[in-house]
C-alpha cells in the first residue's frame, strides 16, 4: 500500500506505487498478471475526470488483459478482493485507489442515528466510542503507512473534540485520505490462503432496516465466510474491521460473532481488542487513524493482516496471528465483504 495522507499524487501514480510493492512481495512481474480487478469511486468530481478506470489501468501497465471494475463505495476494496477470488486465472491483481481530499465524501449524520439507537438499546456511552478511537490511534502511532503515524492523540483530546453530528465527535469519524492498496491472488503455493470469502448486499438506507443496531449484511457475510473456512469466531487471532465511525466497530464486534449483541462495549472497556488483548482489532489503526481512502480500504486491511501473519508488523506485531479476518463495509451496512485468511504451517 502507499502511505495514506494528503499527498498530491494522481490516482495513476498511487496505483503504480501500490502495485509495485505487491508484485515485489509476490515475487512476480506485471507480465505474470492474467487479470486485474480495480475499485475506485467515480473520479468525475475530484478533478481527474476518469470514469473508465479499467482502461486507465491498461495504459498504466501496458497490459491487455481482462480488467474488471468493482464499485461498492466504502466496501469497494473488499468487493474487489471477493470478485478476484472468484476468477479462474493463475494470477490476479486487485487494486483499490482513491483521491478524496477534494471530495469530502463523509456521511456522519446517518451513522449518528445508528449510534443514538445503539446507545439507547444497549447502554453504550460516548466514552466507549472514545475508547475505540483511542485504541486505534495508539495502533496508528506505530504504523509508518498510517495518516496518524507518530502523532500522539490523548483520550482527553478525543473526548473534547468538536461535535460533528451528535453523539459523534470529530474523533469518532474516519479520516478521508488519498491512497492505494494492492494484492495478488495466485494459484501458486503461498504462505497465506483465503479460506473464506463472502459478500452480501442489504438495503442502502438505515431507515429501511428493522434494527439499526445490527447490520444483517455483516451477519450473513460472516456466517458464510466462517462456513467456508471451517472456523468459528473464537478461532480468529486478529481482525481488521471497518470502523468508518467508532460505533460501527462496536456493532461489528457483535455482528461478526466476537461477542453477544450489546456486549461490544465490554470488549473495548476490558481492552480485549487492544494489541495485547485476546483478539487484537485494527492493529493498523483502522479507518479511524490509518485513514479511509474509500476503494483502497478493503485491500489495505488485507495488507495489514498479511504483515501480521508474516510477523512483519514491527512494534504493532501481535502474537500467534495465524487466522485473520477482514470486514469491509460499503455505505451504512449496505455492502459487506468478509474474508478469512490462514497462514500455512
Topology:
Blueprint: H1 11-25, E1 35-39, H2 53-61, E2 67-69, H3 76-86, E3 91-98, H4 108-122, H5 126-140, H6 155-160, E4 163-165, E5 168-169, E6 179-186, E7 192-201, H7 216-229, E8 238-240, H8 246-255, H9 264-270, H10 286-289, H11 297-309, E9 323-330, E10 335-343
Parallel strand pairs: 1-2, 1-3, 8-9
Antiparallel strand pairs: 3-6, 4-5, 7-10, 9-10
Helix pairs in contact: 3-11, 5-8, 8-9
Output the keywords.
four-stranded mixed beta sheet, 345 residues, alpha/beta, 11 helices, globular
Helical/strand content category: alpha/beta
Lateral arrangement of strands in the main beta sheet = 2-1-3-6
The 3D shape can be described as globular
Number of contiguous helices: 11
Gyration radius, to the nearest Å? 18 Å
Overview of the structural elements:
The protein is α/β, with parallel strands linked by helices and 345 residues long. It has a domain at 11-104 and 177-182: 3-Layer(aba) Sandwich (Peroxisomal Thiolase, Chain A, domain 1), CATH 3.40.47.10. Helix content is 34%, strand content 17%. The chain contains eleven helices and ten strands. It has a four-stranded mixed sheet, sandwiched between helices. A four-stranded mixed sheet has the order 7-10-9-8, sandwiched between helices. A two-stranded antiparallel sheet has the order 4-5. The two termini are 26 Å apart. The model has no long low-confidence stretch (mean pLDDT 91).
Amino acid at each position: 500500500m502507499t502511505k495514506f495522507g494528503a499527498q498530491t499524487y494522481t490516482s495513476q501514480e498511487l496505483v503504480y506505487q501500490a502495485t509495485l510493492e505487491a508484485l515485489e512481495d509476490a515475487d512476480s512481474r506485471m507480465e505474470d498478471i492474467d487479470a486485474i480487478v480495480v475499485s475506485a469511486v467515480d473520479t468525475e468530481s475530484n478533478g481527474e475526470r476518469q470514469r473508465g478506470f479499467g482502461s486507465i489501468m491498461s495504459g498504466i501497465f501496458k497490459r491487455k488483459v481482462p480488467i474488471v471494475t468493482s464499485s461498492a463505495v466504502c466496501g469497494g476494496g473488499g468487493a474487489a478482493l471477493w470478485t478476484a477470488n472468484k476468477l479462474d486465472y493463475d494470477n490476479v491483481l486487485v487494486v483499490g485507489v482513491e483521491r478524496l481530499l477534494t471530495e469530502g465524501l463523509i456521511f456522519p449524520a446517518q451513522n449518528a442515528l445508528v449510534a443514538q439507537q445503539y446507545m439507547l438499546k444497549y447502554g453504550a456511552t460516548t466514552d466507549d466510542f472514545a475508547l475505540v478511537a483511542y485504541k486505534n490511534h495508539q495502533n496508528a502511532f506505530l504504523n509508518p503507512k498510517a495518516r496518524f503515524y507518530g502523532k500522539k492523540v490523548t483520550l482527553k483530546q478525543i473526548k473534547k473534540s468538536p461535535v460533528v453530528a451528535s453523539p459523534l465527535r470529530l474523533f469518532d469519524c474516519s479520516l478521508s485520505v488519498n491512497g492505494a492498496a494492492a494484492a495478488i491472488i495466485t494459484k501458486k503455493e503461498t504462505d497465506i490462503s483465503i479460506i473464506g470469502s463472502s459478500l452480501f448486499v442489504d438495503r442502502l438506507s438505515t431507515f429501511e432496516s428493522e434494527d439499526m443496531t445490527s447490520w444483517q449484511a455483516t451477519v450473513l457475510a460472516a456466517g458464510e465466510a466462517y462456513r467456508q473456512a471451517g472456523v468459528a469466531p473464537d478461532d480468529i487471532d486478529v481482525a481488521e474491521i471497518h470502523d468508518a465511525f467508532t460505533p460501527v466497530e462496536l456493532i461489528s464486534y457483535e455482528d461478526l460473532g466476537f461477542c453477544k449483541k450489546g456486549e461490544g462495549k465490554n470488549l473495548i472497556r476490558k481492552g480485549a481488542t487492544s494489541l495485547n488483548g485476546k483478539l487484537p482489532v485494527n492493529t493498523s489503526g483502522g479507518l479511524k487513524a490509518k485513514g479511509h481512502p474509500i476503494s483502497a480500504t478493503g485491500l489495505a486491511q488485507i495488507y495489514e493482516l498479511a504483515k501480521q501473519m508474516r510477523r512483519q508488523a514491527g512494534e504493532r506485531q501481535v502474537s500467534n496471528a495465524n487466522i485473520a479476518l477482514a470486514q469491509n463495509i460499503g455505505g451504512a451496512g449496505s455492502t459487506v465483504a468478509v474474508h478469512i485468511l490462514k497462514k500455512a504451517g
